[in-house]
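hey so u asked for the seq, here:
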Amino acid sequence: MCIRDSYERERLTTYNYQDNVSFNELFNDQDGNLFSFGAQLAFYWQGSQKSYDNTNTIKQKSKIFYTILKGSLGQGSNLSVFQESTFITSPTVVNMQGEDAITTQNSKKAFSSTSDYSDEGFNKNISAELYWFPINGYGIFGQLGYTGQNFDSGISGDKDRYNLRAGLLFNLKNKDKLKNIFTLQLFADRSDLELAPNGDDANLKFGVKIGLPININSAL
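ran it, structure tokens below
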């Protein structure tokens, strides 16, 4: 089991329109304290079976099952409901006696939303990963996760999302076929199962990923 924790300081400037105030008074600096505590539990099993070909050469066949369970709780912000923009005042013409008129204009980048900013969202994350190699070097995998975030009434940013990724695994070996060089992963991905895989949502992606191999010892 592995215990993990993290902390992040979030800083941003927000825009809030008000009547009869100066341009600079429309902006506020916000500080957020974001943290999480989590745990990870892994289980690994490997089995082997010896067989002989027609030349009486021993062949080692290995099977692998590997699973990872993760969970975390923490405090997060609703920055995802904000949009960054550049706010510009209307040009103001200032007439100077004996000189040409001067045009002034203010601009500033900030985040805006119909909701107030909050760093007091209750975050929870749960995920499970399973890897199964029924044949030496070839396998399948699946990853299922849940992400939730909840704020007090009147604050936007609540979300509940389930994601899924599944695909095939290939351990590519060196010339002697004794060691794995890397693992090739072909997958289909759904980042939000509540969205449709096609149409306007188009929440279905295919991809390729290369990573460190899940090694199988040929001489157990």
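The radius of gyration is 28 Å. The first strand starts at residue 2 and ends at 15.
lmk if thats what u needed
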